[in-house]
Amino acid sequence: MKLIFSPASPFVRKVNVMRHEGQLVDIISLTPVQTTALSTDPAARSANPLGKIPALVLDHGKTLFDSRVICRYLNDLSGAGLYPKATLWDVLTLEALADGIMESAVLMVYEARLRPEEKQFETWVEAQWSKIAHALDALEQNEFTILGGDLHFGQLAVACALGYLDFRHPDRNWRDGRTSLDTWNKMMQDRASMQATLPEG
Ligand SMILES: N[C@@H](CCC(=O)N[C@@H](CS)C(=O)NCC(=O)O)C(=O)O
């Protein structure tokens, strides 16, 4: 199998974390691409009509996307047990929250990097950060109790989202006033799968 990959993408990182947690490193190779909304890499386009990554090209040629579909697939394939049946909807909701943080954080990067400076819309950027801040506050206030307890993929997705904030938005100081989340995050970032997938680029 081939993972259409960029080391900077938090969505790709989720899949790569699952690849490590599921001991699938030897059977999933990485195909690096550079793709943006304005310049789609041909390998990303041929794997996913939307041109977005991650996409997973299976051995018989079929392709899976997006990150949530791929992570569920790899969890089933490996038997990693990171989507426990008893808490499935809570785990998926936490993963959706993490993906929402990533989406807003990626859009903020695109606004700064892809849009001509005179067209950049500061109010819109701050609205994206506000979504992230509300999500982080909810995590800090333990509104998602599923964040604690035995390991599952919702936790790993949140760890990927926080890692992306450190990578692309360090100036936002997300830890300010969120000491519980910071402590929890330190423990998550120490996992081998997180250390093996640090963002670059
Ligand atoms: N919902 C998708 C989001 C994927 C996504 O937005 N990926 C970004 C990279 S971080 C991308 O491919 N951007 C290129 C584009 O928007 O065309 C997922 O979970 O995989």
List the helices and strands and how they pair.
Blueprint (H helix, E strand, L loop, with lengths): L1 E4 L4 H12 L7 E4 L9 H6 L7 E3 L5 E2 L2 H12 L9 H27 L7 H19 L12 H16 L10 H11 L2 H4 L6
Parallel strand pairs: 1-2
Antiparallel strand pairs: 1-3, 3-4
Give an overview in words:
With 201 residues, the chain is of the alpha+beta class. The protein folds into two domains: 2-78, Glutaredoxin; 85-191, Glutathione S-transferase Yfyf (Class Pi), Chain A, domain 2 (Up-down Bundle). It contains eight helices and four strands, in the order βαβαββαααααα. The chain has helices spanning 10-21, 42-47, 67-78, 88-114, 122-140, 153-168, 179-189, 192-195; strands at residues 2-5, 29-32, 55-57, 63-64. A four-stranded mixed β-sheet has the order 2-1-3-4. β3 and β4 form a beta hairpin. α1 (10-21) crosses α6 (153-168), α4 packs antiparallel against α5 and α4 runs parallel beside α6. The longest helix is centred in the middle third of the chain and has 27 residues, at 88-114. The chain is globular and about 45 Å long. The model has no long low-confidence stretch (mean pLDDT 97). Glutathione binds next to α3 and α4.
